[in-house]
Amino acid sequence: MNRIKVKAALSAKEPREDIQINGWVRTKRDGKGFAFVEINDGSCLSNIQAIVDEGLPGWDDMPRVGTGAAVSIDGELVESPGKGQKWEVRAKALRLIGEADQESYPLQKKRHSDEFLRSIAHLRPRTNKFGAMFRIRSEAAYAVHKFFRDRDFRYVHSPIITGSDCEGAGEMFRVTTHDPAQPGAQSYEKDFFGKEAALTVSGQLTAEIFATSLGDVYTFGPTFRAENSNTPRHAAEFWMIEPEMSFCDIHGNMDLGEQFLKYLVRHLREHCAEDMALFAQWVDKTLDATLDSIENDTFVRLPYTEAIEILLKNAKTKKGKDRFEFPVEWGIDLQTEHERFLTEQHFKKPVIVFDYPKDIKAFYMRMNDDGKTVAAMDVLVPRVGEIIGGSQREERLDVLQARIQEMGLPEEEYWWYMDLRRFGTVPHAGFGMGFERLLMMVTGVTNIRDVIPCPRTPRHLEF
Ligand code: 4AD
Ligand code: MG
Questions:
Q1: Parallel, antiparallel, or unpaired: how do β-strands 87-98 and 198-199 relate?
Q2: pLDDT-derived band of residue 228, with 50, 70 and 90 as boundaries?
Q3: Which of 25, 52, 234, 436 has the fewest CB atoms within 10 Å around its CB?
Q4: CA pair distance 452, 130, nearest whole angstrom
Q5: pLDDT tens track for 145-178
Q6: Is ligand 1 within 6 A of the CB of residue 225?
Q7: ipTM score assigned to the predicted complex
Q8: What pTM, to 2 d.p., does this model score?
Q9: Which DSSP letter does residue 75 get?
Q10: Which ligand is in closest contact with the Cα of 201?
Q11: Closest to 312 (Cα-Cα) out of 287, 282, 334, 290
């Protein structure tokens, strides 16, 4: 018997004898003297149908073959006379591998709400929607690596436990240890073998080390933020991709961000067409138009100061009501409502806002000649808002030192970061893209918890 995946079976060129399909039953329909069993093995969205005739080996187990059960079927791959599928399996034998009790199996044939499925996150990848989501997620990770490899970037593994706070925003999870000989003993504040340590909020500073040695690099790994913002766009644990390029300024950085998003959308549309179609049909009817725009439209490049002017001009709706909850003035950090207005309503395409006020940005961003703004950039896309945040870095030692002092940061902790400016400093730039925000963008899913295999929330920590 040749074991094959459902995906391969459904795209076969010709009939095949002696195949074996292993998977989980989606539905079973009983006929007179036979049964139709729809099997999904996770290799693709579609199921394969098997016809099992009465009296075949394993037939006696049929009453226990229900939705969710694991089965193995030996048989022939034959052209299907029925509509809707080209191939089906004529079973020669069926083995019930793992039964699923029909009374208690939570995934019934009807559509379940996302909220309900979040409460059974260990079973939700067995549904069509979440199966599709996690196949897309897997393919997207591959596409990220392919994009950078094709451009000769090197992959750097930045540490997860760190002593430095990259964003300077004080939103870190502490790492503590405790003595197993004293269960329940209090952990101590400075507890990484006597030092303070935390989970990383960004791999950027590590990427800068390697950009100033290997040239063009990127990181791609888990990232942690202890921000207690219970929003549909923020997670405590998420994955971030951070390219960093030497001999590159903010404009080269914007170019890369735009090319990256276009590439990922194109790749996923080509390689995950069946799964993407599910989202376009059931989740977001405007998805294809949005993705067409990302692929084909040139992104708008808009200085922050002009963005504020546009928002101020549009602060009132046609009916004279306040359009925004959060008042607009030069100096504010753009809120999601502002970002979405710019990209969804005003320009109707992706927008890159750059040159933000220095006071709302991190210490490492390069100071512009105006002394008021820094060479920061955010890429905004419809519905998601900010998907990429990045900047040109401050490569001038004296300016960086002044900035660190001005912001009251512990200068001595950045001695190694200063070394990168002391020895062979170069203009360099990079950005971070939230991997989950990308998945939200390409599927139209609006809650970040529905694009993460095991979302980390206080209620979901068991697995
Ligand atoms: O804008 P952020 O905070 O930038 C940085 O961390 C820089 N060090 C990146 C760099 O220049 N190398 O985060 C970058 C992106 C955001 O645009 C967003 O897509 C995502 O990371 N992100 C989050 N995604 C999910 N949950 C959160 N809590 C996120 N915080 C940021
Ligand atoms: Mg940001």
A1: unpaired
A2: low
A3: 234
A4: 10
A5: 999 999 999 999 999 999 877 666 568 998 887 6
A6: yes
A7: 0.99
A8: 0.96
A9: E
A10: 1
A11: 334
Question: Of the residues 206, 240, 374, which should be mutated to test ligand 1's pocket, given the most ligand atoms within 8 Å of the CB?
Answer: 240
Q: What is the pLDDT of residues 69-119, one digit of tens each?
A: 999 999 999 999 888 889 999 999 999 999 999 999 999 878 899 999 999
Of the candidates 431, 430, 428, 460, the residue with the CA atom closest to the CA atom of residue 447: 460
pLDDT in tens, 191-224: 787 788 899 999 999 999 999 999 999 999 999 9
CA 453 to CA 141: how far, in whole Å? 14
Q: Within 10 Å of residue 457's Cβ, how many Cβ atoms?
A: 13
Residues of the chain with CATH 2.40.50.140: 2-105
Residue of minimum CA distance from atom 24 in ligand 1 = 434
Tell me which DSSP letter residue 160 carries. S
Residue-wise burial string across 338-368, b where 16 or more C-beta atoms lie within 10 A, e elsewhere: bbbbbbbebbebbbbbbbbbbeebbbbbbbb
User: Among candidates 388, 399, 396, which has minimal Cα distance to 441?
Assistant: 388
Q: 2-105 has which CATH code? A: 2.40.50.140
CA 407 to centroid of ligand 1, rounded, Å: 21
Q: Which residues contact 422 (CB under 8 A, 6 or more apart)?
A: 397
Q: Is the C-beta atom of 197 inside 6 A of ligand 1?
A: no
CATH 3.30.930.10 domain position(s) in the chain: 124-450
| Distance (Å) of CA 243 to CA 101, 202, 214, 390 | 48, 12, 12, 9
The pLDDT tens digits of the residues spanning 6-62 come to 999 999 999 999 999 999 999 999 999 999 999 999 999 999 999 999 999 999 999
CATH number of 124-450: 3.30.930.10
